[in-house]
Amino acid sequence: MSARTYHVITYGCQMNVHDSERISGLLEEAGLRRAEGDEQVLGAGADVVVFNTCAVRENADNRLYGNLGHMASIKAKHPGMQIAVGGCMAQKDKDLIQSKAPWVDVVFGTHNVGSLPRLLERARIEDAAQIEIVEALQTFPSNLPSRRESPYSAWVSVSVGCNNTCTFCIVPQLRGKETDRRPGDILAEIQMLVDQGVQEITLLGQNVNAYGVEFGDRQAFAKLLRACGEIQGLERVRFTSPHPKDFTDDVIAAMAETHNVMPQLHMPLQSGSDAVLKAMRRSYRSERFLGILERVRKAMPHAAITTDIIVGFPGESEEDFEATMEVVRQARFSAAFTFQYSRRPGTPAAEMTDQIPKQVVQARYERLVDLVGEIAWEENRRFEGQEVEVMFALGEGRKDAATNRMSGRARDNRLVHVTVSDDPAERPRPGDIALATITHAAPHHLNSDVPIRGLRRTRGGDAWDAATREPAGTSGVLLGMPGFKRPE
Length: 488
Description:
This protein is an alpha/beta fold. Helix content is 33%, strand content 20%. The chain contains 14 helices and 23 strands. Strands 20-21-18-17-16-19-22 form a 7-stranded mixed beta sheet. A 6-stranded parallel beta sheet has the order 2-1-3-4-5-6, with helices on both faces. Strands 8-11-12 form a 3-stranded parallel beta sheet, sandwiched between helices. Helix 12 links the parallel strand 14 and strand 15. Helix 8 (220-228) runs parallel beside helix 9 and helix 9 runs parallel beside helix 11. It is globular and about 65 Å long.
């Protein structure tokens, strides 16, 4: 009898993507195989469909319940299908999910991802829905088996949870207070990944530069970055996301002085208005934020800085919004993730009386997007005629077979579309590295339409080759902490 299949549908941030890799690893350890082809269309043909949810924005609710409604008719035609809902929405709405979608078999929270296989089996045996939401972290996701999508790039969690109390954010309620992993455990995982061919890692946390507060070392994150520089074969190190209130000069120095820490920083601004920042309970002001950027650029003149910005926070006046626009002009971000304020039940901001009319928020949002795009394009045009180092990637940006393009990331994380050779001997693989001359810049990417130079075959590219040679249905990389073995 063939193995049961699964499909994981992920909403939200990098932490959710990381968790979904662990969910996939757990299911494969339990004997399931990943659904392929048509089975992946909203899990229509899979035996187990898992929704790993986000609760940060209102449209996440709408998407989830809309998709769960669609799944009811699919499940009715597929005897034995199981549907599970996990992640932040499950942690928040455990009872509501069951009342709105009683055909869901399992609801599990952010703290007990590892329970999913057991809950699915219990739901099958008892023919009854299983809901298990625990309030404290049971084990770090990184201690669970994982099925990574990339053989050459990986996420590594340094902490889970957040100690901040931003009035717009529900994450601390859903992921709990910050819990830090020990540095030795993090570095052991990175070494294990590098031994398997990974050459780029991204350190993950809700507030990575608060790392170490739990065990009393305020310089722990800078030390961790420097320790990454000692790992042979580790080509690129990135991290997300820091908080301006905790961003210290020792981290800037570690970034600048550690060869494999990339000249890239994602630093959430949220608002350029000091009054709005105070109302958001963000314990920094625009002057401090810009000061951090100035020191980063002094240490790393070519660093690319990206950010998050919320438009239309309750009470935001036109003057407040103009203050945000002015900070954007001074900061000259290479990109910005811009959001219209979303009212989230359970947060202090949701109870504020001075909510901004939708049409005002939309108009401000469009002005901000235009300004961000204009500045990003100006910054990208500075690269025309320059040579950048590109690590090629799988599924990164557009693919255009007619023009032989591949995509990848520059050291500063800019997306680069590169015209490559037809000759397999000269064509890069995902994970390989080459120098590309930028011939044209667009607002959100760079183009190189001339031959690459200095193609370097990497261990990451070798790992990609090895992964693609696996039998159909087992592509990807299944791994775990020492002692975990791929199921036969």
